[in-house]
Amino acid sequence: MKLQSFIEHPWFSRFILTVILINAVLIGLSTDSSLYENYETMFIGLDVLVLAIFTIEIVLKLWVYRLHFFKEGWNVFDFVIVAGSLVLYNTHLVSVLRILRVLRVLRTISVVPSLRRLTAALFLAIPAIGSVTILMGIIFYVYAIIGTSFFRDVAPEYFGNIGLSTLTLFQVFTLESWASGVFRPIFEEVVWSWFYFVSFIIVSTFIILNLIVGEIVNNAQKLSEHSEQESEDTRKIMNELNELKKLVKEKQE
Question: At what angle do helices 193-200 and 126-151 cross, to 10 degrees?
Answer without folding.
Answer: 170
